[in-house]
Amino acid sequence: MKYFGLVWKNVWRKKIRTSLTILSVLVAFLLFALLSAIGYAFRAGADVADAERLVVIEKISLINPLPIAYKNRIAATEGVAGVTHASWFGGYYQDPRNQFGQFPTEPYEYFALYPELDIAPEQLEAFAKNRTGAVIGKEIADRFGIKVGDRIPLISTIWPNADGGNNWEFDIEGIFSTTEPRGSSAFMLMNYDYFEESRQYGKGTVGWIFHDADYYVTNQRDQAFKTTIENDYPGISIVAEQGISDPARAEELASAMLLQNPELDGIYVTWAEPADGVLAALRSAGNAETKVVTLDLSEPIALDMVRGGNVAGIVADEAYELGRAMAAVGLKALLGEESPAFVVAPALTVTADNVAEGWQQSLHRDAPASVLAAQ
Q1: Cα(346)–Cα(319) distance, integer angstroms
Q2: Residue 30 CB-density burial (10 A; 0-12 exposed, 13-18 middle, 19+ buried)
Q3: How far apart, in whole angstroms, are the C-alpha atoms of residue 26 and residue 22?
Q4: Tally of domains in the chain
Q5: Structural domain includes residue 153
Q6: Cα separation, 317 vs 371, whole angstroms
Q7: 86: which strand partners?
Q8: Is residue 44 predicted with pLDDT exceeding 50?
Q9: Closest C-alpha among 221, 287, 275, 281 to residue 247
Q10: pLDDT digits (tens, 9 = 90+) for 159-177
Q11: In which band, very low, low, confident or very high, does the pLDDT at 6 lie, cut at 50, 70 and 90?
């Protein structure tokens, strides 16, 4: 100890050198802690995944979602037997200190891939059928005294709901445990469909393929789609735009859009003919997730829709009524009577559920036999 004073004075003789040395030691310890955590995360992933199950996350953080279109790509990979997905909800129960994992997911698919999670079949079925249903691990249920039949609130720190608030409520339909000795049941699962419909933002990304020509009718409806999305649906973002003048180039243009934006949840196409090319691009990419909406009734587009393909819906004019309106305007002109400067024909939404009625209402004739037979 008699040399301590001498050592101490020498240490601080070069203050910058000493400070940098201390800093380097601190950085070394920090890196050790961070790398240990990363190593633990990788080992934990292996424990959860086991030799036959792989967990895939976004490269920066598990909080960042992967494009839903990746699900089909992974499913198409040789050797893959099943795929599901789960999102990080980031909520707490009653108090910010009561945090545990919550994941919106697909009920049946998730439990099929995690057979070590033990849940009563009737509880799993109730979870799947209830839009606001959830199941909770036994560790969490015991910790907070939660029972089947309870309706519990969660405050999300990431996802505001459609009303702009952070308070979400869920019906507890079941309690699961784990048969894996090293496993954990300290988390909660909820229905992804409810999460997707009710969150305020991040609901989807959309591509917009518009008619790139000076034509009043298509220009009006293309712009109406874009304006409606931007003004009325803040949770949906138009992330890709592409004009088209030649329908024959639709597949080429759509392929380029999908290559740059593989995460697209939907594509608006200005009318049915180029929409057929967009469908060809989606099929070539093996993409069954991205939905398509377009205008005007068309047999190939309607066939894809009724077969459960990419087409989600078709908007159609009531063409028969449009013809009647034009005849009435012409007759008024012949009689020397004034006609309105602008006449609007009604429109209707045609889906797989009402395609036969929609065809009749729009065109006053039966839908093609192939479409009716595919229902």
Answers
A1: 9
A2: exposed
A3: 6
A4: 2
A5: yes
A6: 19
A7: 105
A8: no
A9: 275
A10: 888 788 899 999 999 999 9
A11: low
